[in-house]
UniProtKB/TrEMBL annotation:
CDD domains: FYVE_RBNS5. GO terms for molecular function: zinc ion binding. The lineage of its organism: Eukaryota, Metazoa, Ecdysozoa, Arthropoda, Hexapoda. The keyword Zinc-finger applies. Residues 146-224 form the FYVE-type domain. It comes from the Eukaryota. Keywords: Coiled coil, Metal-binding, Zinc, Zinc-finger. The keyword Mitochondrion does not apply. Residues 361-385 have a biased composition (Basic and acidic residues). Residues 13-41 form the C2H2-type domain. This is Rabenosyn-5. Residues 361-393 are annotated as: Disordered.
Amino acid sequence: MATADEEKILEGFLCPICKADLKSASQLTSHFESLHQEEQDVLRSLKDIFGKAKKIILNNDDADLKETFDRALKFSYADYRDEEQSEGVSRSSSDYFKAVRSARLERYATETNKLLIRLDKLVCNMPSDPNQRKQYEQEIVPWLDGSSVKLCPNCAKAFNLTRRKHHCRLCGSILCHDCSLFLDINVARSIVDPSAPPTAAPADAEVTEKTGLRLCEHCYNLIELRKQVQESRNAKTVLMTAYEQMRSLMDQARPAVALYEKMCQSLFDGETTYNLSDVNAMRGRIGKLAEGIDLLSKQIASFPAEPGTRQFRLQNAIRQAAAHYIKEDLLSLRKLPTEAQIDEVRRQRYERAERQIQMERQKMEKERERLEDLAGPSGREREVANDNDDDNPLLEQMNIIRQYIKEAREEFKFEEVAILEANLKELKKEYHLQKLSNKC
């Protein structure tokens, strides 16, 4: 219904007398009947006039009506076909809609928060004994007196011996068993405390009164809506999952690169802790990590986003950072030495070690001769030659460590290989010192 004057156009459920907007048809009817009794007689007379005119028109000849209609149509088309129509007056209802919507959302939020407070109190110190549990639930949320309630408020079925009265544990209202919904206690704990670790339950497990809380449909829907909001907030997007996987590969690549550099340096120094196959295996592992990082970064950059937006710039920045990391840290590794270079360095290291051992032996021989000269013939009697040392415990320990080194290399645990090799060197040194002392 709308009326127009020279200044503006009014819209809504308007009173035809006072032009007031009553917002709804029922309010308009009650307003008109209570405040405009005198004008109703005038409206009745107008309705009678229009009714008589309608009957007269319907009783006329069909041909005359068709001719009159065609003439009026041609007249209106001829008069208004070239006339340019202007835009009418528009009115925005956004503010009214937002006010209604915010009030409704606030009401739902208030009710949901009250239910969550009650739910928190219920699940925190819930007793395991069913009898004590019922009394505890009634103390937390007072139950309505059902002495005068004869029908279920939800399904309108009468209560009897087979259809007993039950109470909602969150609002205390009365309902029957068929209208009851059960919320699992573990799910309730995860709702009131999202940081708590979830307790896995069988997928086909039915929630009963013993394992859940009896709720009415209204309370259950509000709690379920809150649960869905929590899950949507905690849910990870495909973009976030891909980024976390890429960061995980980067975290694995950093110590792998550091260990590769350490292994290369060990080869250049002529040490026997690592061999060339170990370093090549580590290099291949770093290459696979680089391929995974590159693939995930390309996947992140290919996600649809509006050009110029913040998400678009973020995806491109992730791709550029990943490409720079691969180029500077993973692909610019130190070049491996050749077998000939490794053999030459080890030969020189072996020669230096041999010279050192010869010097130590000469020194020990001189010391032994000096002691023999001082001790005389009785000193030679103390000399015990025992070259058969197969049962030496040091040899057994060295063999065990060599086996551990072999297993660690097969599993790419090169840090353990370095530690075991260091232990093996200490045992070898101790073994040589023991042999020298036996000779002396």
